[in-house]
Design brief:
There is one protein chain. The termini are far apart. Helices cover 34% and strands 31% of the residues. The protein is built from 8 helices and 18 strands. The strands form 3 sheets. Strands 1, 2, 3, 4, 5, 6, 7, 8, 9, 10, 11, 12 and 13 form a 13-stranded mixed sheet that branches. A 3-stranded mixed sheet has the order 15-18-17, with helices on one face. Strand 6 and strand 7 form a beta hairpin. Helix 3 crosses helix 5. The chain is α+β, with helices and mostly antiparallel strands. It has 3 domains: 109 residues, no CATH class; 132 residues, Sandwich (Jelly Rolls); 72 residues, Phage tail protein beta-alpha-beta fold, CATH 3.55.50.30.
């Protein structure tokens, strides 16, 4: 049996899946069938992502009384559904409250999309592969330079300049436009600038923001009430998912200027940390055959893509043996 009745209408099915998942009443079987539906057709994934985008846009338009009423109605229906007990054993017989939430979501989506089209918002995605770098000139002549293995989504309208850093690292050279602040969203936080240059990087530890020119306001979440930290040129901050934002520290400007010039700079850094950074740019990782080697220190400037020069420096400078395989490159003492 199919999970929903509207299999010939992917848009409707995507809305119903989105409402069901947001309800929090999805068992393992339903989760598996949702994944199967998303993977079955690239169009399914796009339809579902569209619902997420519309929901985010509706939140951004939260000051609109109509939008706010619809969002409140949806949340109320979901809370009512939870109070009436867990989902039925057969999740396919989802309660009317969930479908009411889907209908409310559809109404929000229609209105949000109306405003979306009215403000002539354009959405573009850009990405780089491992070891690749790419500079993108946006519609306002701002430049986004993507580092290795990076993906961004750009949303521009007459009122908004928004970039979502989905993974990796990017340097933003922002054209001045006081009427349209430039926002970079990463790991729920948002960095806002008018005309400046700054770098944002996300990894397993969280997000790091370094300001090279001008001033950027960094907030731990997207709430209008969230207090931001003012970060000036030469300063940087960090934050995990959900914040808080750290106190300003020195910006990571040497590393940033190096990668923009297709270089990696190591200045008296432990080998373990150096390999973690270098492995961002290569497909076959370099690993330590002996963990004690990780405390050795390395110095040097290496061109991104010239792996043999880097390995040669390890052989000669640290007296290491290099053993290559298809899966990894192992460093051991000589």
């Amino acid at each position: 049996m199919k999970p929903f009745r509207h299999q010939q209408n992917p848009a409707r099915t995507a809305s119903e899946w989105f409402a069901l998942i947001r309800s929090g009443e999805v068992d393992a079987r339903a989760d598996e069938e949702w994944k199967e539906w998303v993977d079955a057709d690239p169009g399914h994934s796009r339809q579902y992502e569209d619902r997420e985008l519309v929901w985010e846009m509706a939140a951004d338009l939260g000051e609109s009384p109509t939008i706010q009423a619809l969002l409140n109605e949806t949340d109320q229906q979901l809370r009512t559904s939870r109070r009436r007990g867990p989902a039925p054993t057969s999740w396919r017989l989802a309660s009317w409250q969930t479908f009411a939430a889907a209908a409310s979501l559809a109404a929000v989506g229609v209105l949000a999309l109306f405003w979306y089209n009215r403000t002539s918002t354009t959405v573009n995605e850009y990405a780089t592969a491992i070891g690749e770098q790419r500079a993108i000139t946006l519609a306002d002549q701002s430049i986004v330079t993507l580092n290795t293995a990076t993906k961004v989504r750009v949303l521009y309208s007459r009122a908004t300049r928004r970039v979502e850093l989905l993974q990796g690292e990017a340097l933003f050279a922002v054209s001045k436009d006081p009427s349209r602040p430039f926002e970079v969203h990463a790991l729920q936080g948002v960095s806002t600038a008018v005309g400046t240059q700054f770098d944002v990087r996300v990894d397993e530890r969280g997000a790091a923001v370094s300001v090279l020119d001008g001033t950027v306001i960094v907030a731990p979440d997207e709430s209008p009430k969230s207090a931001g930290v003012s970060v000036s040129a030469g300063q940087g901050v960090d934050y995990p998912v959900g914040g808080p934002v750290s106190t300003p520290r020195p910006a990571d400007s040497v590393r940033i200027n190096a990668w923009v010039s297709h270089r990696i700079v190591f200045s008296d850094i432990e080998l373990a940390d150096a390999l973690k950074e270098y492995n961002r740019y290569i497909n076959v990782p370099i690993v330590l055959g002996d963990p004690h080697l990780g405390s050795r220190h390395i110095n040097g400037v290496f061109r991104i893509g010239d792996q043999e020069a880097f390995l040669g420096a390890l052989r000669q400078g640290l007296h290491l043996q290099v053993t290559k395989s298809d899966a990894q490159i192992v460093l051991t003492p000589r």
